[in-house]
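Retro notes (design track)

What went well: tokenization of the new backbones is finally stable.
What didn't: we kept losing track of which sequence belonged to which structure.
Fix going forward: every design gets posted as structure first, then sequence, in one message. First example under the new rule, 250 residues:
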């Protein structure tokens, strides 16, 4: 159950995601189990947003996966309402649940639960998912437990956001490096052609581009062939002048 030390340790555990072996699915499974341990709830589930769609990510009990699947199928339920509103949703009465989400209420009752308490994984205005508690008796958590759960959810949201931000920047850095590497190869090929054909770099690039277009190759692919091959420009078919369109013939 909650106490200041266990809450602090849990928040540190889920906010610190800068390790090199971070796995989002493992993170979600661990968050679901840890939330269940701290709240005493036998069934907790975590859903994470992927490309604007809320997807099941982990649960402390198989029923959690099934209940998320029901919500995903019908497009409604407390977990989805929590994510869409960015606010905690508590429903502790099956009859009230039936009037809002009949298919989900039937699934919840069939699994032996009477209520749901869903908390957003959210930091400021950015939502990344939800943590849902499926309750046997339907009673809402005490104010202290509810506040502690929201604190843990905020810490977990920070952890997910910083890891996703890190991955985004790593992808950008890799793409920029690949673009730079391609540019370097093209510049090298331009230099080789300019020297062998005795033309200026602009003319060399125009011949390179025209040849690549004529033979449906990429400029970078042709440039790499020139850089890697000892063949002369005539063997690559680059010695011919660039054809100039005829204004009369079209």
């Amino acid at each position: 159950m909650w106490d200041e030390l266990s809450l602090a340790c849990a928040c540190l555990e889920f906010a610190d995601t800068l390790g090199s072996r971070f796995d989002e699915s493992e993170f979600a499974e661990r968050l679901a189990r840890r939330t269940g341990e701290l709240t005493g709830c036998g069934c907790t589930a975590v859903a994470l947003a992927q490309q604007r769609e809320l997807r099941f990510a982990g649960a402390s009990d198989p029923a959690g996966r099934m209940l998320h699947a029901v919500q995903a199928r019908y497009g409604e339920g407390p977990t989805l309402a929590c994510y869409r509103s960015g606010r905690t949703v508590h429903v502790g009465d099956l009859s009230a649940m039936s009037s809002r989400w009949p298919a989900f209420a039937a699934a919840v009752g069939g699994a032996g639960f009477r209520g749901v308490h869903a908390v957003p994984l959210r930091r400021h205005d950015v939502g990344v998912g939800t943590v849902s508690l499926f309750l046997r008796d339907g009673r809402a958590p005490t104010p202290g437990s509810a506040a502690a759960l929201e604190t843990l959810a905020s810490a977990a949201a920070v952890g997910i956001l910083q890891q996703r931000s890190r991955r985004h920047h790593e992808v950008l850095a890799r793409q920029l490096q690949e673009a730079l590497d391609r540019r370097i190869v093209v510049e090298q090929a331009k230099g080789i052609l300019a020297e062998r054909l005795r033309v200026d770099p602009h003319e060399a690039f125009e011949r390179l581009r025209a040849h690549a277009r004529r033979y449906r190759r990429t400029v970078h692919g042709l440039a790499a062939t020139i850089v890697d091959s000892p063949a002369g420009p005539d063997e690559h078919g680059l010695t011919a002048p660039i054809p100039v369109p005829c204004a009369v013939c079209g």
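Added context from the reviewer: The beta strands are 43-50, 53-59, 89-91, 115-123, 126-135.
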